[in-house]
Design a protein that fits this description.
- It contains six helices and 49 strands.
- It is mostly beta strands and about 725 residues long.
- The strands form 13 sheets. Strands 19, 20, 21, 22 and 23 form a five-stranded antiparallel β-sheet that branches.
- It is globular and about 80 Å long.
- The chain starts with 6 loop residues before the first helix and ends with a strand.
């Protein structure tokens, strides 16, 4: 893939790759993350041939829009709206609020009741009562839909906060640089960072300082085009100097972690991920940079630490760093793989860097790591790896993977413990899997608490047990008001004032009953759109992506879900087609025995007994060959005229860019005979040069609506 590849070139290559590699599609987190990235950006790109698939241009326009917002006083009428929260509701036995990417604990509060949580796409949330009640503190300042990867509290003034924005995982969510609050989050403003559209991966203050700051940022649309940079500021962000630059795709992917040396406050340590490229494994890297605040890059010294004696000759996909604030010891943790074996053997390792001897010491090794939620050191890798030192107990280490592990090196032999109680599931009740943030805090009495952000919210824990026999205990502190669920789609049964449902990222489907009081949850990972049966509001269909893009059904209002087909699967000719995660799906009230769903083609399933669709009860209504529609096109919209069920419209997400060029990127199709024949409305129109048709050709398409009484009136 060329370094300057645009969105459409990237998706073409990636779709082809996952089509060829079934194992990567079904069992790799890459596929899910790639689809999230593609879903996010496909509707945000600029509809103009001069900026075809240009994500940087979309970021630039977003930054310009932010500049037009009123003063960030947190009370502008521009942000007022008559909206109230409708759901999802509260679940006592599950932790399924949404993804928390970063945390900050205000230790000036001796009871540790004040907590800040940075989310994947909905700004920063705050609690002042330990998690009983939460409130978003960025939505009225123009920063409601940003990801937040790090939050800092000024150690000398807890009212001063800094937040690093953007999500670096495949470039999802806008980055607006660094934002600052001087009143404990009541209002926010953008700091004068040199690259305000970059994703800031980490933000750290020099220990004890209110002024000397380091930002680790990346800029680019995907791993192959990211440029990773380190900036330093000696004056609380008033000015910045770039001291380190690496282009990802050479030998590293992205920078992931950065720590100060507490004994030499002008020295930082830096870690990267590894990369597998063209049949070669390029290992994660660990760097040491000195004299970072001297102002002269020629006096700064950069050195690789992972090439020194004692470092494992194994491949690590991602490393995490921690530094002992008392003696300055550097620790590194990660899962290492022996790539010379088939299958590969995986080891968890905790390493210590001996600065005096300029070498490495292995503190602890766990062999044959099994990547299962209930197995110790599982899930540590490219998507999750957190390392923190206990602040109360010397030689105790906390490691975040799927859940949390502890290494207790106070005894010989060293002990280790994995948190996954027998009553747990991936959705909690006290700890949703996938640890994204980890913080250790001491209350006013010297008691240590562990705070974790995960894909379901925020958990607070403590270390119990004895030396050599550590035990972890956690509590779900999501509370009320932490309304951070990322919903891909919602739906409701016709004529019902209360019942509705939707599909969420990482937390599957939610359904509220007709009384408006009881909520049900479908535990299947990512879910998208929901459609209710027009004759029975207890029956609904939910699109999910569990490696394969399938459909689930419920016949009891959402309490129990299973596969749509009575034969426990959908036909391969459907699920193997290119498709969007939030693919369109509907039931026409005039045809309640048919379920329509859009993949590459439009498929119609005949609903049978118990509202299931047998595997042989599907019909391809379009069956486009490559002379009519390019193979990788994915349906984004579907509509059937309420006044005439023979009139149908379908739309595809990708634009076409050449009026006289390839005709296989056809955008909008119409059928007047119930799907037997189809006509393209964009390239075959009598007015190909009209503003409307050009807009359809060049812009991503998201939905189609037909007038309820007049099938000639259509909104696209």
């Amino acid at each position: 893939m060329a370094p300057g590849a645009d969105f459409y070139e990237i998706t073409s290559v990636m779709d082809a790759y996952f089509k060829r590699h079934e194992d990567a599609r079904l069992h790799s987190g890459y596929y899910k993350s790639y689809n999230r990235w593609a879903d996010f950006w496909r509707t945000r790109l600029v509809g103009h041939p001069d900026h075809k698939g240009d994500i940087a241009k979309a970021n630039e326009l977003y930054a310009q829009a932010l500049e037009q917002l009123p003063a960030a006083d947190g009370n502008s009428s521009l942000y007022s709206a008559d909206w109230s929260y409708a759901g999802p509701g509260e679940f006592n036995n599950r932790q399924i609020k949404g993804l928390v990417e970063s945390l900050a604990i205000d230790e000036s509060d001796p009871t540790l009741q004040t907590i800040y949580a940075g989310t994947n796409a909905s700004g920063i949330w705050k609690t002042t009562d330990g998690g009983k009640y939460w409130q978003c503190i960025t939505d009225r300042n123009g920063f409601s839909n940003v990801g937040v990867q790090d939050i800092l509290i000024d150690p000398n003034n807890p009212k001063i906060l800094y937040a690093a924005t953007g999500i670096s995982t495949y470039g999802r969510s806008y980055g607006v640089g660094i934002i600052k609050s001087v009143n404990a989050g009541a209002s926010w403003s953008r700091l004068g960072f040199p690259e305000n559209d970059a994703a800031i991966r980490r933000l750290v203050l020099q220990p004890g300082s209110s002024t000397h700051m380091v930002a680790l940022c990346s800029q680019g649309r995907d791993y192959s085009s990211k440029t990773n940079k380190i900036y330093v500021s000696p004056n609380a962000g008033a000015s910045w100097q770039r001291i380190f630059t690496r282009k990802a795709g050479e030998t590293i992917k992205i920078f992931t972690d950065i720590e100060f040396d507490p004994l030499n406050l002008n020295t930082i340590y830096l870690a990267s991920t590894g990369i597998y490229k063209n049949g070669v494994y390029y290992n994660s890297e660990i760097w040491k940079i000195t004299n970072i605040f001297c102002g002269d890059t020629l006096q700064m010294q950069q050195s690789r630490l992972d090439i020194l004696p004692g470092y494992p000759s194994l491949y690590a996909e991602r490393l995490s760093l921690a530094v002992d604030p008392q003696n300055g010891d550097l620790y590194v943790s990660g899962n290492f793989s022996d790539i010379s074996t088939t299958p590969e053997i995986h080891y968890f390792k905790l390493l210590k860097f001996n600065a005096a001897g300029n070498n490495w010491q292995t503190i602890y090794t766990h062999s044959n790591v099994i990547h299962s939620y209930d197995q110790i050191f599982s899930g540590i890798g490219i998507w999750r790896n957190e390392l923190e030192l206990s602040r109360k107990f010397s030689n105790v280490f906390y490691i975040g993977g799927f859940t949390l592990d502890v290494v207790d090196a106070r005894t010989n032999p060293i002990a280790a413990y994995h948190y996954y109680p027998p009553q747990s599931s991936i959705f909690g009740p006290n700890y949703h899997v996938d640890t994204r943030a980890l913080k250790i805090a001491l209350d006013g009495q010297g008691n240590e608490y562990i705070f974790a952000g995960n894909d379901g919210g925020v958990s607070r824990g403590v270390l119990k047990g004895t030396e050599g026999n550590p035990v972890l205990s956690f509590k779900n502190i999501n509370g009320l008001g932490l309304n951070i669920t990322q919903l891909y789609g919602i739906g409701s049964p016709s004529g019902d004032l209360f019942a509705f449902g939707g599909g969420a990222q990482d937390n599957s489907g939610f359904v509220r009953d007709s009384n408006g009081k009881k909520w049900y949850h479908s535990a299947f990972g990512d879910a998208y759109d929901i459609v209710y049966h027009p004759l029975n509001k207890s029956v609904a269909y939910l699109t999910v992506n569990a490696g394969d893009p399938i459909i689930l059904k419920t016949t009891d209002g959402g309490n129990f879900w299973n596969n749509l087909s009575t034969t426990a699967s959908m036909p391969n000719q459907i699920v193997n087609q290119p498709t969007l995660n939030d693919r369109p799906m509907l039931i026409n009230p005039d045809q309640p025995n048919y379920l329509y769903v859009g993949y590459h083609d439009l498929w119609r399933g005949t609903i049978g007994s118990n509202y299931a669709i047998n595997i042989d009860a599907w019909q391809n209504l379009t069956n486009f060959d490559t002379s009519l529609l390019q193979e990788g096109q994915k349906m984004a919209a579907l509509a059937i005229a309420p006044s005439n069920s023979n009139i149908m419209f379908i739309g595809y997400s990708e634009p076409h860019w050449f009026k006289d060029g390839p005709k296989t990127y056809r955008k909008v199709w119409k059928s007047s005979d119930g799907g037997s024949t189809w006509n393209d409305l964009v390239l075959t129109t009598a007015y190909p040069d009209s503003v409307l048709i050009k807009s359809l050709a060049y812009n991503p398409l998201t939905d189609i609506t037909i007038h309820p009484d007049n099938a000639l009136k259509v909104w696209i």
